[in-house]
Amino acid sequence: MKITLSKLLRPALAIAFASFTSVSAAQADKFTLHGASQFDEKHAYTRLMRKFEQLTKLNYSGEHEIEFVMHLNSELGLEKDYVAYMNQGLSVDYAVASPSHMSTFSKLATVLDPPMLYRDTGHWSKVLSSDVLKPIVDDIYKRADILLLGYGGGGVRHLIVNKAVSNMAEIKNVPIRVMGAPIQTKLFNAFGMTPNVIAYSEVYNAIQTGVIDAAENEAAGIRQMKFYEVGPNISLTAHSITVRPLAFSGKALRRLPEDLQAAIIQAGKDAGTYGRVTELTEGSGIMAEMEAQGKLKTVVFTERAKLIAAATPVLKEYFNSLGQSALYDAIQAVK
């Protein structure tokens, strides 16, 4: 296994940054809040967090100075690391993270955006703008001590494959990378594929070396990670619409003055809306641009209705296993 110097240094960096975290009482006139992103300034998740920073400063009229420090390009590891740091109240105060990385603490986190949960982008948007998901927010805060401030995301995810696939027969038994949440494995099994849990940072090499033949991601991720170089055929399954919460460490939040807490909570909600609109509206343009540049080829998937039919009983069973049948019904009832 190849271990880079940056990976070896990440734990040390995290410990070092912990000593400078804003929420210490050592500097009562100034609070320095640390954010983390796997990506650069151009990525939608980073831009969401930058908007959060701006809105927090606009919302806050208290006496304390607020400083934001953003650690970009996986400087402090990956999203799963950010979740662990926020749980501990160290190093990372806020980050955008996939719900699957919160499932270590809360099983309910996995039901925020499994494939085929949302009928379309309109349904997705209405659910995230309502209070329907509050039971999930409450459970994550209780078990992980992480507060979901708002919901980013909006990436419509498609299959990234090293060959063209357009129907259920052609995706049968295709090895695909999935995220670590069990529901992801269950659903891609139901689609007839062969799911493999692989770290996000290893996906490119896994396709290149033939460990898997496919992955799945939205346009921004495909561009950022250059997945088109190893999986140039993008099958337009639109099987998932991402929900990427802007999360804040509960331990960090409670150390702040109440008026600053209120400013942060409101800013997080509004920044989430900004992030959803940004990613949703830009996604199709990014995909079209990459195709026009000859980097990838989009392939129409002709049997999306069969994906929905395969996913529905699995989703119902999964929600029921968590004692959340009523939550599933409430999500589907949103019109």
List the helices and strands and how they pair.
Elements (H helix, E strand, L loop, with lengths): L4 H14 L11 E7 L7 H16 L5 E7 L7 H10 L5 E3 L24 H8 L5 H11 L1 E16 L6 H4 L3 E4 L3 H9 L3 E4 L5 H6 L5 E4 L1 H7 L7 E17 H5 L3 H35 L4 E4 L3 H18 L3 H9 L2
Parallel strand pairs: 1-2, 1-3, 5-6, 8-9
Antiparallel strand pairs: 3-8, 4-7, 4-8
Key traits:
single chain, 335 residues, alpha/beta, D-Maltodextrin-Binding Protein, domain 2, seven-stranded mixed beta sheet, two-stranded parallel sheet, 9 strands, 20% strand, disordered N terminus
Question: Given the C-alpha coordinates, what overall shape results?
Answer: globular
- Termini, distance in Å? 49 Å
Radius of gyration, in angstroms, nearest whole number:
20 Å
Instruction: Output the structural class.
Output: alpha/beta
> What would CATH call the class?
Alpha Beta
Order of helices and strands: HEHEHEHHEHEHEHEHEHHEHH
Strand percentage lies at 15-25%
Overview in brief:
By secondary structure, this protein is of the alpha/beta class.
Descriptive overview:
The protein has a single domain, classed as 3-Layer(aba) Sandwich (D-Maltodextrin-Binding Protein, domain 2), CATH 3.40.190.170. 45% of the residues lie in helices and 20% in strands. The chain has 13 helices and 9 strands. Strand 5, helix 7 and strand 6 form a beta-alpha-beta unit. Helix 12 packs across helix 13. The chain is globular and about 60 Å long. The N terminus is likely disordered.
